[in-house]
Amino acid sequence: MATGALTAALLAPAAAQAAPRCGAAHATPEALGAPTLALAWRARLSQVTPVRRFVAQPRSRLTALDPSVADTVLVLGTHVDARGRCWLRVRLPTRPNTAAGWINAERVRLRTTPWRIVVERARRTVTLLRGGRVAARAHAVIGTAGTPTPTGLFAVASVWRNPPEDFLGAWVLPLTAHSEVLKTYDGGDGRVALHGRGGASLSAPLGSAASHGCVRLANDDIARLVRRIGRAGLPGTPVRIN
Questions:
Q1: Based on the domain organization, do 164 and 198 belong to the same domain?
Q2: Distances, alpha carbon 60 to alpha carbons 47, 54, 57, 161, 225, in Å
Q3: What are 80's strand-pairing partners?
Q4: CATH no. for residue 137?
Q5: Do 143 and 101 share a domain, yes or no?
């Protein structure tokens, strides 16, 4: 059961619900757990937060999450230690694409999200789910055979508006995913993003495989996705790439 301190820390400022139970196998509105098709938990950072490789080993510090880099992360699982403290296994915005670590739940604020984004490489589509039901679907451009879009469970790391006529289009949603082929790209670390289309990127038609790994959507489609989820609700939203 959560302590009084944990209860206060877990509550978002406008939240009316009680502190969620810790240690469930799957995410529910009442309990922290691994993401399901219909629900996931997002952990918002308010300070630089230490990350452990192993939850029960204080000296196994792996890194630290800086909210200026990624202020909200996806919860992958939970653990209650011998002292009754709740620990969260979260997806890290670093390489490798399976990178995860444990953070103390007392250091974050938690909210559920019913949203999930699914990228189907074979169909070259992006589907937006709400509560496990299809809310929208659009055709997309994916990575080439030589620079494929990576597969796995990722999360939106951040979001920003962009000039619509720019190569990246109207919106850019960097993911926790990175190219498995390109270690660096265009001055960055090979991070994969969902983004719009403009300028030279319009030369590759929707439904083609022509990118360096990013997933390109029509500006209207990615704007609709941002509008439906809400800009503040996007970071930490799960993204499954199949």
A1: yes
A2: 20, 6, 5, 38, 38
A3: 86
A4: 2.40.440.10
A5: no
Greater confidence (105 vs 56) lies with 105
% of the chain surpassing 70 pLDDT: 93
Give the global pTM.
0.91
* CA–CA distance, 118 with 242 (Å, rounded to integer): 8
Comparing CA positions, the residue from 188, 196, 118, 115 lying closest to residue 151 is: 118
Q: Is the same domain home to 62 and 130?
A: no
How many CB atoms are located within 10 Å of the residue 96 CB?
Answer: 11
Per residue in 26-42, pLDDT tens? 999 999 999 999 999 99
What type of residue is 16? A
Reduced to 3 states (helix: H, G, I; strand: E, B; else coil), residue 4 is helix
Mean pLDDT, rounded, of the chain? 92
Amino acid occupying residue 62? L
Neighbouring residues of 18: CB distance < 8 A, sequence distance ≥ 6? 7
pLDDT in tens, 137-170: 999 999 999 999 999 999 999 999 999 999 999 9
What integer pLDDT is reported at residue 39 of this predicted model? 98
Domain that holds residue 178: 115-241
Here the tokens at position 241 are 């790439």
Strand, helix or coil at 228? helix
Selection from 34, 37, 38, 64 nearest residue 52 by Cα: 64
